[in-house]
Design brief:
β6 (about 35-45) and β7 form a beta hairpin. The strands form two sheets. Strands 2, 3, 6, 7, 9 and 10 form a six-stranded mixed beta sheet that branches. Strands 1, 4, 5 and 8 form a four-stranded mixed beta sheet that branches. The protein is mainly β and about 110 residues long. The termini are far apart. Helix content is about 5%, strand content about 55%.
């Protein structure tokens, strides 16, 4: 998935661990995110309070900031409590620079086992 503020809807299965990989590019080249603080926020709608925040750490869980690679993992225990439909965005911040990497809708589907 290549992105620099892409509208990317995601799907999750309730009770499963889900992982989504984002490759941040600028003019076709990897965007170096070294030094950025990166956070994903989930809300019931764009105007409501946050229901989930995921913080990213360079070189952990598949994240490689120097190559613009971000892996957002939603643990099984968290996917169980997300509403059926919510919205999310991922933002990177460094000093006064704010970069929205992706945003979209998250649909959580029920499990049958």
């Amino acid at each position: 998935m290549s992105t620099k503020f892409d509208l990317i809807d995601i799907k999750a299965l309730r009770g499963d661990t889900e992982a989504y990989t984002y490759s941040v590019t600028n003019a076709g080249a990897a965007y170096n995110l070294t030094g950025y603080t990166i956070v994903a926020t989930f809300r019931r709608s764009w105007e409501t309070e946050s229901i989930l925040t995921i913080s990213f750490t360079d070189a952990v869980g598949g994240n490689v900031y120097s190559t613009g690679t971000i892996v957002m993992t939603i643990p099984a225990t968290t996917s169980k409590i997300l509403p059926e439909v919510c919205v999310y965005d991922i933002q990177a911040t460094s000093g006064g620079t704010i970069l929205t990497i992706a945003r979209g809708q998250c649909r959580v589907f029920p499990e049958c086992t």
